[in-house]
Amino acid sequence: MLTNPLIPVILCGGTGTRLWPLSRASYPKQYLALSNNKSKTLLQQTQQRLQGIKGLTNPLLICNEDHRFIVAEQMRQINIDPKAILLEPIGRNTAPAIALAALKATEQGEDPLLLILAADHEIQDKNEFLRVVEAGSKYAHEGKLVTFGIVPTSPETGYGYIEAIEPLNNQEMKGIAINRFVEKPDQKTAKKFLTDNRFTWNSGMFLFKSSAILSELERLVPEIVSCCRAALEQAVNDLDFLRVEQEAFAKCPNIAIDVAVMEKTKLGTVLPLNAGWSDIGSWNALWDISKKNADGNVIQGKVISEESKNCYFRSENRLIVGLGVENLAIIETDDAVLVAHRSKTQNVKTIVKKLEDSGNNEGKSHRKVYRPWGSYTNIVEGKRWQVKRIEVKPGASLSLQMHHHRAEHWIVVKGTAQIEKEGIKELLGENESTYIPLGCKHRLTNPGRMPVELIEVQSGSYLGEDDIIRIEDCYGRMNEMLPKNTIQQ
Length: 489
Known about the structure:
Elements: E1 6-11, H1 42-48, E2 60-64, H2 68-77, E3 84-88, H3 94-105, E4 113-118, E5 122-123, H4 126-141, E6 145-150, E7 161-164, E8 176-182, H5 187-194, E9 199-209, H6 210-220, H7 222-233, E10 236-238, E11 241-243, H8 246-250, H9 257-262, E12 268-273, E13 277-278, H10 283-289, E14 298-300, E15 303-306, E16 312-315, E17 320-323, E18 328-332, E19 337-341, H11 348-357, E20 368-371, E21 374-381, E22 385-392, E23 400-402, E24 406-414, E25 417-421, E26 424-428, E27 433-436, E28 442-445, E29 452-460, E30 469-472
Parallel strand pairs: 1-2, 1-4, 2-3, 3-11, 6-12, 14-16, 15-17, 16-18
Antiparallel strand pairs: 4-9, 5-13, 6-9, 7-8, 7-9, 8-12, 10-11, 18-19, 20-21, 21-22, 22-29, 23-30, 24-27, 24-29, 25-26, 25-28
């Protein structure tokens, strides 16, 4: 009888630059509701589609420090209490991340199955996905390293391929040994692969025993295991998170699990998956999987379309009017608009790179920035002043802090806020305000059950966020560095 529990390992890294301007480094695509299920983010859907798998436990998530509160909040929203949220101090690709997960999963002497998933994939047929995972569990229990190959639907040049030693049949659910992994092919080669049932797209999803993957990592890239073991031994618990020790982890080779293990192991087994999978790697890919109207248009938000065909329109704030256009992707956010031919949307990442190289903040961050206590939105700014809208969740509190170079005015526009200045507390209701002078120790708290909204007007000789001097913080951020011109609070 198969008794090993199954732990989902959800890899939450990546910046999703091909889905700019909606996806940015500060809030990438895995934390957005992009697919036809508008109420849940891609991360939340990744977890929820697992319901029904035998032996399923709560997940183990791996993310970077900047996104830790987003991950924790989104799991809380769907009533999931993760086994652990591991914080990578630096990105080192999937092999070290999986090594961390396997070591963490076996620290109590257990040997669970690990289902490795990316947080930003779409799978439309949940039942078929569960059927394939159940079939893969049999091979994983036998010590195989299982991967799920996506049955190709087109000669795709943007994906890597897996070649099995014999043709695959997704009805039989038979695992086949892997012959080789193939890097992204040219169009001619991709067309050839499409006609050969031995080839599937490399999904980046895996299933194996913790002991099996650790054994192969030890054999093929032992430095990864030793570095990750040292990083975990020196890890520090911080609220809901486990901070992996930076110096040891930074010594890990930067390498994908495919290259480190799967291309070399003799234990590799592939199962075909035909479940409406997409990695949502571009606006065109999102158009492909989205519901369309009679003209082939996908319309999200405030949009008027006339005599337009096969377009992806998405408005987050302002009105978009499409008149007589075809095959375009038009995406509007509060600080940027993208207009591109759908066939060119894979190249959006080059635009993001140019924005970052030129110092444009629009390449990395939105005007609205999420924090563990709520969010704030940059409204307008001048040379020596700026205005923000701040929203604080019920029961939440900003850090006790001070500034050397700026003063602040706070005007409450919704709810009731508790203001602390130099140890003295007072309540402010709607249309009431207060002034925070230079050097004043202050804190903002929402003592009520409804969100508090206020307008903050900053003025001074320097408005950079590294002028925040934290004195107390209930979110474990006391030791964080606040680099110049970052968007933090």
